[in-house]
Amino acid sequence: MKLRQKTNWEAALDKFLLKWRSRPEVIGALVSGSRVLGTDTKNSDIDVHIVLADHIIWRERGNCVIDNYIIEYFCNPIAQLNEYRKDDIKSFAHTDARMFALGRIIFDKQGALLKLQKEARKELSARFRKLSKAEIELGKYSLWDELDNLKDLNENKSTFYSYSHHLLLNRILELYRRYLGAEISSSSKLERFFAEKGFCQKYGIREFEDKRFVKLFSEAVRTQSFTSISRLVAYVLEQ
Known about the structure:
The protein has 239 residues and is α+β, with helices and mostly antiparallel strands.
């Protein structure tokens, strides 16, 4: 069988991992992110997780440049990785589970990474809890209050209107996606998440079901007008 030739970024990653492979506290490594999923751009870094034995108490996060590729690395013992996934669920996200579920194992000395990957893949299909009535009412009030403040900035032609407009957009999106029990991508990939065919499937994220919201949200981002964001808030409050 003919072996696949490694890409330049994979060769750079191999160079980086040379110093980690032989360390006794390191039990495996996994590469994740856009390089693995095929959604990378020329500016994409290489995300690699270095998994440590559970008796290790230190953690490390950093980056370096090898062959003009930025490598961002995360060193954590298994117990800490499990805690990260628990914290993600509280935040209505599967970020860490997704990295392991869709990542590629580079080496696995004890089979621990394969076990982590299987657990993470199960978690991706888990639904988030529903917001309580109190959380929904407080969220509705905050949107109304922040829109009222934005109205003042708009009427006074404040130079800080645009800044506050986008802060409110972020607040609207975060509240509404939690209300729907939905996950979204990072801000740098949000446009692709909403509009690019096949993007959600690559990341193992359910498509955002409310297309009316997506249209209103995108319009508010594009126009930065008070009218458009008012329309968006009204729609979310109605839902």
